[in-house]
Amino acid sequence: MYAAGGFNINPTTHKPYMIPDLQLFNQTTQRWQRLTTIPNLELSHALSFNDNNLHVSETIELPDQLPVTNILRSFDLEKLIWTNPNNDLNEQNSTQTNPVKSPLTLSPNSKRSAEIKTNQNIQVVNLI
């Protein structure tokens, strides 16, 4: 199970602040483990999961046109690296702590589905 992004409230100023972490729940230790920090995450960004990747996207709305969604960057959950679809450059995750082998190591032809829930403004993706 993964938890991606979210926000919290500063107890002093009562203002929200971003939590740009991607975390994995380790069933062996029964603890959350930070995999990476989501670069430049903003409140207007959307997070989605598809094909072993966490995608960070933005939607651009123009008058009299259909909205356009652009994927800004993706995190490969098997290789544990960020990729940027705009310039096709792969970057090793420099903020990664406690590297883990992804539990999603399945054959390329395997079928998966994901159940997405929101709990206290944190998107949780459960792989089924």
Low-confidence parts lasting 5 or more residues at pLDDT below 50? Answer: 88-128
The main β sheet shows up as:
5 strands, antiparallel
Spatial shape = flat
Give the mean pLDDT: 75
User: What's the end-to-end separation, in Å?
Assistant: 10 Å
Helix fraction, binned, reads under 10%
| Tally of contiguous helical segments | 0
Percent of residues in beta strands: over 45%
User: Strand order, biggest sheet?
Assistant: 5-4-1-12-11
Characteristics:
12 strands; 50% strand; 5-stranded antiparallel β-sheet; 128 residues; disordered C terminus; mainly beta
Give a brief description.
By secondary structure, the chain is mostly beta strands. Helices cover 0% and strands 50% of the residues. The protein is flat.
Structural features, described:
- The protein has strands at residues 2-4, 7-9, 16-18, 21-26, 31-37, 46-50, 53-60, 68-76, 81-84, 89-92, 114-119, 122-127.
- The protein is mainly β and 128 residues long.
- The protein has one domain (2-127).
- Strands 5-4-1-12-11 form a 5-stranded antiparallel β-sheet, with no helix packed on it. A 5-stranded antiparallel β-sheet has the order 6-7-8-9-10, with no helix packed on it.
- Strand 4 (21-26) and strand 5 form a beta hairpin.
- The protein is flat.
- The model is unreliable at 88-128 (pLDDT under 50).
